[in-house]
Amino acid sequence: MALFALKAAYLFLMLLASRIHCVLIAYSSVKMVNQLLAGVHIAVSAEAMAFGVRLGLESRLLYDFIEKSDGCSWMFTNRVPHMLSSDYTPLSAVDIFVKDLVFTHTPKLMMALRWHVCQHLPDSMSP
Residue 110 phi/psi, 5° resolution? Predict the structure, then answer.
């Protein structure tokens, strides 16, 4: 009886561990998408401000307008004021940021990893 309970517990824990791995891989995929958006928002915020200045708009007024518009993002409101005040202090862990953006260029690697981990789950456990 005890051996049966141990085997049942082992199988349960193995299924649970597999499910947790798939959840972690799904989280990694979400983080990859988030980091892509964060990087794009920083770059596009700088480009948008430069474009507005080239069009003859005053940068602080442009910022104030965009900040209240649908085109605004958290990265815009967090980074552009530093750009406008010529404060180039790094606000992110640049090495981590670059590493995360590299993963956005290798989605096939992430999908292959996800497939490898999740392919052994019963259909009822698949993400």
Answer: -65, -40
Tens of pLDDT, residues 4-59 = 776 777 777 666 666 655 655 667 777 777 887 888 898 899 999 999 999 999 99
Query: Could you give the CA distance from residue 26 to residue 32 in angstroms, rounded to a whole number?
Result: 10
Known active-site residue 31: yes
Question: pTM of the predicted model, to two decimals?
Answer: 0.58
Please give the DSSP secondary-structure letter assigned to residue 106.
-
Residue of 31, 68, 99, 108 marked catalytic:
31
Torsion sign, CA atoms 10, 27, 107, 101: negative
Per-residue b or e along 41-54, where b marks 16 or more CB atoms closer than 10 Å to that residue's CB: bbeebeebbeebee
CA atoms within 13 A on the CB side of 13: 6
